[in-house]
Amino acid sequence: MFLTATPGDFRDFYSSIGGVLVMALGATVSGVGIAIAERLGRDEVEERVLA
Fold first, then answer.
1. Secondary structure of residue 16 in the 3-state scheme
2. Which end of the chain has the lower number of beta carbons within 10 A, N or C?
3. Are the C-beta atoms of residues 16 and 23 closer than 8 Å to each other?
4. In angstroms, what is the C-alpha Rg of the chain?
5. What pLDDT, on a 0 to 100 scale, did the predictor assign at position 28?
6. From CA 26, how far away is CA 34, in angstroms rounded?
């Protein structure tokens, strides 16, 4: 994000539709990765015998 704070090629790219698509795709892939990591990291629920 610091690269987009100053004028130049990076700022021009991320201001275009291609840059917006790259950011949206990155956010989507990150969200999917977080969901997968949470699912893999959760503990199995054991059935209570004497409940």
1. coil
2. C
3. no
4. 20
5. 98
6. 12
- Rounded CA-CA distance 45/8 in Å is 53
Give me the DSSP letters along 39-51: HHHSPPPPPPS--
CB 37 within 8 A of CB 30: no
What pTM value is reported for the model?
A: 0.69
Sign of CA dihedral 35, 40, 43, 47: positive
SS3 sequence, 23-35? Answer: HHHHHHHHHHHHH
Q: What is the pLDDT of residues 18-46, one digit of tens each?
A: 999 999 999 999 999 999 999 999 988 88
> What are the tokens at 49?
């015998």
φ and ψ at 48, to 5 degrees? -80, 125
